[in-house]
Amino acid sequence: MEVARVEHASKVYKIGEVETHALNDASVTIASGEFTALVGPSGSGKTTLLQLIGCLDQPTSGAVFVAGKDVSRLNRNQRADMRRDTIGFVFQFFALIPTLTAFENVELPMLLGANKLSDGERRKRVTSLLESVELADRAANRPDQMSGGQQQRVAIARALASKPTFILADEPTANLDTANGKQIMDIMTRLNQETGVTFVFATHDQRVISYARRIVTMRDGRIVES
Amino acid sequence: MKQLLRMAWQNLNRNRRRSFFSALALGMGISLLLLMAAVLDGEYRDALDAAIRLQSGHLQVRALTFDEGKTSLAWTDLIEKPGDLAMRISTLAPVLAATPRLIASGFVAGSDQSVGVRLFGIDPSSPASAPYQQGLKSGAWLTSDDRDGVLVGEKLAAQLNLNAGDKLNLTTNTSNGDVDQQAFVVRGIYSTRTPGFDNTTVLMPLVKAQAFTQAGDHASLIFVLLNDIDQTEPVKTALQTATYDVRTWSQLNDVVVQTQRLSQSYMVMLYLIVLAITATVVVNTLIMAAFERTREIGILSAIGMRPGTIMALFLIESAFLALGGIAIGLVLGGALVAYGTLVGFFIGDVGATGLLVGSTIYAHLTVGDAVNLIVAGLVVTLVGALFPAMMASRMEPVKALRGG
Ligand SMILES: Nc1ncnc2c1ncn2[C@@H]1O[C@H](COP(=O)(O)OP(=O)(O)OP(=O)(O)O)[C@@H](O)[C@H]1O
Ligand SMILES: [Mg+2]
Best residue in A56, A84, A116, A144 to probe B by mutation, most B CBs within 10 Å? Predict the structure, then answer.
């Protein structure tokens, strides 16, 4: 079963007179349960592709389908709801809200949801998510009171919070040392196997690529192998 | 929603000094406006109060042809047997005092100058004369049968260099169109603390004034004070007959009443101008915050927070700032107003024509003024905050997340 599909998508960035074809007629389908690495040299369009699949941006031409819906037909609120309900994000720079504790960061997506859990259920879920990324003891810490690896694990817990169908991770280990990178990849692999949630992660790192069960290679905005 | 309030609060806490100074700007604006509103209100209240106590009363009963601009003493312009009429009016329950008064114009010939004055023939024993008696600075109060004594206002006395016991030469118009002149003794100097009144008015017993101006048993008007100003209209209705003209305090002081209305509308404009200026400080703070938090807004957007919710977050922050500013404004402004109410601001002799202004202005803050200001402060700030809030809600999550 597919969770997202990109059809002949192009993305052109224009700065003044200069046009950059960040994505050039790219097509790819992500199936449920995948654990996929998006690889390619710097500037090849990995981030751009993830942004389209993540409903963070729209293609210049072509189409993106998420959960069976054409993203270009969704308005801003519908795209926000799509991100909230079906997509989780993990970014290179441990994107947490600095004023909130680890617990609150993980809790936040659930507070945005329409199908609200009871307070008790929600707390239980946050605690179990933090346990699953081995951070139960850091629940009360704010981001500046945690290491990079810990912050990234909180981000993974947060990405899982609203039970998304897939998680997009853009170079999740690029700012981590080898040991922490390995821990992140181990956790992601385990979560993929335990919960069946789909992972797509962009990376340059050969060790990270080795975790993937599918590899999509990009060059100059094109998908050259998948 | 609870989480949104907490986030807004924590966001303001991140840059406490900046948040404080934004709120302080609003607070200073509000406190100054509060003081201005209170001073203006106090000034008009005092002016009206002085005008009613000293000059107009709550009601006046006069002859149909009486014209206060002319101070005509022709008998047809005066009230006949005013004592009887005043007595009858006094029996009405809401009436505190009703007393005949004769008003004439004249001048005092000093050694080197003549000064135009207003002669007030009053009943010294009437409670309505108490404001003059209470203001006695030196000398003695008048008695009803005094035949050559007058009281001179403090300002006028200073101008003519008069003291209690001095002689003064008074000239007046009379009922039959002549002028008459007589020497009087200054029994005392009074002050109503209202320079505009004190520098023109000479008081003498009604009976003597009637004799001096040959007005017979006539008076210009019956001066009526009520126990409660709100009784003015019913009493007016009760007194109104075909033979007399009954005027209320608001008709008699229309200059004051209209000036007050006008200045209230100026105040509203001033509110908006000052609050708009202080709101720009808050707006500026929020714009800076929106730019600083571009990435964070992108994160919120990425995890599915709707644009409307992001906007709400910023509006809540601005509401907190506004409430903080209002709180500061009420404390600072409250202190200023309290000073103005208890101590007052000395302004000296600035009585304008038609407006009796005391030499010290006391502030008087009405609940209405305070509430208007609080609501205006909140609304103007929130309206101003719409712009940065919309700006934040429209930030693209992509831009927000690229390049760490
Ligand atoms: N907002 C933008 N405006 C202009 N050009 C952009 C913008 N974002 C990306 N690009 C350009 O688009 C191309 C693809 O960028 P993208 O970030 O998708 O590459 P990437 O594969 O993720 O690279 P990296 O591995 O360095 O993260 C690059 O040439 C980049 O300079
Ligand atoms: Mg990239």
Answer: A56
Interface contact A112-B303, CB threshold 8 A: yes
> Residue A27: phi, psi to the nearest 5?
-130, 135
Specify whether B77 is located in the same domain as B212. yes
- Look at B303 and A83 and tell me if their CB atoms are within 8 Å: yes
Is B270 within 8 Å of B372 (Cβ atoms)?
A: no
Looking at the domain assignment, is residue B90 inside a domain?
yes
Residue A42: nearest ligand to its CA? Answer: 1
Tens digit of pLDDT for each residue in B49-100? 888 988 889 999 999 988 877 778 888 889 999 999 999 999 999 999 999 9
Q: Which of B14, B301, B305 faces A99 most closely, judged by CB atoms?
A: B14
| In a shared domain, residues B279 and B385 | yes
β-sheet with A198-203: strand ranges across: A87-90, A166-170, A198-203, A35-39, A214-219, A222-225
Domains of chain A: 34-58+73-214 (3.40.50.300)
Coarse DSSP helix, strand, coil percentages of chain B, rounded to the nearest 5 percent: 55, 20, 25
Residue numbers of the domain that contains B215: 65-242
Number of domains in chain B: 2
Helix (H, G, I), strand (E, B) or coil at A150: helix
Q: B249 in a domain, yes or no? A: no
Pocket of ligand 1 (CB under 6 A): A 13, 15, 20, 22, 40, 42-48; B 402
Q: What is the pLDDT of residue B243?
A: 87
- Chains A, B: CB contacts within 8 A come to 72
When pLDDT is cut at 50, 70 and 90, the band that residue B366 belongs to is confident
Residue B374 corresponds to which amino acid?
I
Verify that B192 and B264 share a domain, yes or no: no
My answer on whether B393 and B273 are in the same domain is: yes
Ligand 1 atom with the smallest distance to the CA of A15 is 4
Distance (Å, whole) CA A173 – CA A156: 12
Of B181, B211, B242, the one marking the end of a domain is B242
Low-confidence ranges of chain A (pLDDT < 50): none
Q: Does B289 share its domain with B366? A: yes
Which residue(s) pair with A198 in the sheet? A166
Query: Quick check: is B59 in a domain?
Result: no
CA A28, CA B128: separation in Å to the nearest integer? 98
Between chains, do B306 and A77 touch, taking CB under 8 Å as contact?
A: yes
The whole-angstrom distance between A157's CA and the closest CA on chain B is: 12
pLDDT, tens digit (0-9, with 9 covering 90-100), for B153-166: 998 998 888 999 99
Same domain assignment for residues B76 and B201: yes
B212 inside domain: yes
The string of pLDDT tens digits covering residues B10-43 is: 888 888 899 999 999 999 999 999 999 998 888 8
Question: What's the start-to-end Cα distance of chain A, in Å?
Answer: 17
pLDDT digits (tens, 9 = 90+) for B116-152: 999 999 999 999 999 999 889 999 999 999 999 999 9
* Contact yes or no for B296 and A83 at CB 8 A: no
Mutate to test the interface with B, among A20, A52, A78, A83 (most CBs of B within 10 A): A83
pTM for the whole structure: 0.79
Nearest to B264, CA basis, from B44, B48, B28, B50:
B44
Q: ipTM value of the model?
A: 0.93
**Residue B355 shares a structural domain with residue B380:** yes
Residue B5 sits at the chain A interface (C-beta within 8 Å): no
| Shared domain check, B275 and B136 | no
